[in-house]
């Protein structure tokens, strides 16, 4: 006897030759039959879905799972909670009043777009911190702001003589004191003095994040960057934490993790045309692992964010005068690290938000492919938030996969368009242009930068409406079917997992989400009202009821 058959559903399989089936047979975590290929009498259990619409489990191609878990325990300063500087300071004051003596007060998600265009300063935070060190993470997670107590914990008395690392910035006042804002790599000046999380703590955050995502119908994620908390990631013990959660059965979603580029190092003395091969100990690289936990690409932040005016741009931002962002690493360092990783067999995932940063990573990939052609490497450009038609054509020629976030349009679009100016807004957060150029884009949210809800993300990809109600480049809208395919088939393809994920066909994993209404049939204005009725992983119901 086989395990379970789900009957009387509307399964949108994502297989063009058989796009809609009614019955799905599952055994040992995989789909083994559709419709009448096997009779229900061959299964131990038969579950009637009563006509419910079903799609493959959503696969968030760029989601910080451990940070989703952590953010649920941090002070929430996102726009839903905080829409003025006064309300932010009140929230910090309340958190400080309840914090144990000497503990850090950490908040996340503030957006200066809602604070009169200004970041909270160290002095403003001092006035409400009750003596606690305060560290507030910007919505982009590329910036932060801290109070005087936090700077002094890091050794910078009265916020003076702050040595700024390469690839970062720390604005100072007229007396040479840090104002409080920390850009890009400068965040490590304070972050490195917050107690590091152990593997046990990371495992707990992974478990908590898994629960959050399963409620949203997400069954797979790619975590973009682990092991280098000074850049991105939770702890040096990230991978051990993921493994511990996996061993305990607490890793509820399937996770492909990206070691950060600085965790790689030369494997031996091998040199190819002047480049040393870069990899992990024992030669570990992309592809190691199993269906629940797997090593994916290596991740690097080449530049910053548009909201923070730190993404590396060809032209200056609207303000401040003369600013066009910057790279987080010297170009030669990026070349050595990324080309060395390519030569060692890694898939590359290169955060490039500004259009100038995009040119830099494309030049590097072109050189890497010249030295060692890998036609199916599927190197990725995370975000690719500013891209011209010429750049899109070159990305396609290089075989790159752009990884956009539809929800950024809704949550960040107004602020980003203000930063780049109306003349460049048509180049922001493109998706249709990528598809039309033949690149199978995945779907992602970059949660917890924005909420991980895939339904809201699909709605944003379809209507491209910002919070103010403006439509950001209507010609870039996707159809519902294209958005769902991005969230399933294309997200699996983006990490070489299309043989086991993305479709509901025999031989693939039995991961799927039951919806309260059929996204393929409701008006697009009703998409956001769709609820997740249940989430199924490996044929087992892990959230909701069926």
From TrEMBL:
Record-annotated membrane-spanning stretches: none
Native source species: Brevibacterium linens
Pfam families reported in the protein's UniProt record: Amidohydro_3
Domain Amidohydrolase, residue spans: 45-543
Protein name: Amidohydrolase 3
Keywords: Hydrolase
SUPFAM superfamilies from the UniProt entry: Composite domain of metallo-dependent hydrolases, Metallo-dependent hydrolases
Single annotated GO MF: hydrolase activity, acting on carbon-nitrogen (but not peptide) bonds
């Amino acid at each position: 006897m086989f395990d379970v058959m789900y009957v009387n559903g509307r399964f949108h399989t994502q297989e063009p030759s058989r796009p809609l089936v009614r019955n799905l047979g599952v055994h040992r975590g995989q789909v083994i039959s559709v419709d009448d290929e096997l009779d229900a009498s061959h299964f131990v259990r038969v579950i009637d879905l009563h006509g419910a619409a079903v799609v493959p489990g959503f696969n968030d191609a760029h989601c910080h799972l451990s940070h989703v878990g952590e953010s649920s325990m941090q002070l929430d300063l996102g726009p839903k909670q905080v829409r003025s500087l006064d309300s932010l300071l009140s929230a910090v004051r309340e958190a400080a009043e309840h914090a144990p003596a000497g503990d850090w007060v950490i908040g996340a998600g503030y957006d200066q777009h809602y604070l009169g265009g200004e970041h909270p300063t160290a002095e403003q935070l001092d006035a409400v911190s009750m003596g606690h060190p305060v560290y507030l993470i910007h919505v982009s997670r590329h910036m932060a702001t801290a109070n005087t107590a936090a700077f002094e914990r890091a050794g910078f008395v009265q916020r003076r003589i702050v040595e700024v690392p390469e690839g970062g910035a720390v604005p100072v006042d007229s007396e040479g004191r840090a104002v409080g804002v920390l850009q890009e790599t400068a965040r490590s000046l304070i972050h490195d003095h917050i107690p590091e999380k152990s593997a046990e703590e990371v495992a707990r955050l992974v478990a908590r994040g898994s629960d959050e995502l399963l409620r949203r119908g997400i069954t797979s994620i790619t975590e973009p960057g682990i092991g280098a908390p000074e850049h991105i990631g939770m702890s040096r013990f990230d991978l051990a934490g993921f493994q511990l959660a996996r061993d305990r059965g607490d890793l509820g979603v399937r996770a492909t993790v990206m070691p950060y580029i600085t965790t790689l190092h030369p494997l031996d003395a091998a040199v190819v045309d002047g480049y040393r091969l870069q990899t992990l100990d024992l030669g570990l690289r992309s592809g190691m692992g199993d269906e629940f936990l797997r090593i994916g690409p290596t991740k690097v932040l080449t530049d910053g964010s548009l909201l923070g005016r730190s993404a590396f741009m060809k032209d200056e931002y609207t303000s401040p005068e003369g600013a066009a962002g910057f790279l987080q690493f010297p170009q030669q360092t990026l070349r050595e690290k990324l080309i060395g990783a390519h030569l060692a067999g890694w898939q590359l995932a290169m955060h490039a938000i500004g259009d100038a940063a995009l040119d830099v990573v494309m030049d590097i990939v072109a050189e890497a492919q010249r030295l060692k052609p890998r036609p199916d490497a599927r190197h990725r450009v995370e975000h690719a938030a500013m891209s011209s038609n010429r750049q899109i054509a070159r990305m396609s020629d290089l075989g790159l996969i752009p990884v956009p976030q539809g929800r950024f349009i809704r949550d960040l679009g107004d602020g980003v368009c203000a930063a780049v100016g109306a003349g460049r807004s048509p180049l922001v957060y493109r998706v249709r242009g990528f598809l039309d150029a033949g690149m199978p884009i995945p779907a992602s949210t970059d949660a917890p930068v924005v909420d991980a809800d895939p339904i809201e993300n699909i709605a944003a990809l379809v209507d491209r409406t910002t919070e103010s109600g403006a439509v950001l480049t209507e010609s870039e809208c996707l159809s519902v079917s294209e958005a769902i395919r991005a969230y399933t088939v294309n997200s699996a393809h983006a990490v070489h997992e299309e043989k086991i994920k993305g479709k509901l066909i025999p031989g693939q994993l039995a991961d799927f989400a039951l919806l309260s209404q059929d996204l393929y049939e409701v008006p697009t204005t009703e998409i956001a009202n769709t609820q997740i009725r249940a989430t199924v992983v490996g044929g087992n119901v892990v959230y909701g009821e069926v």
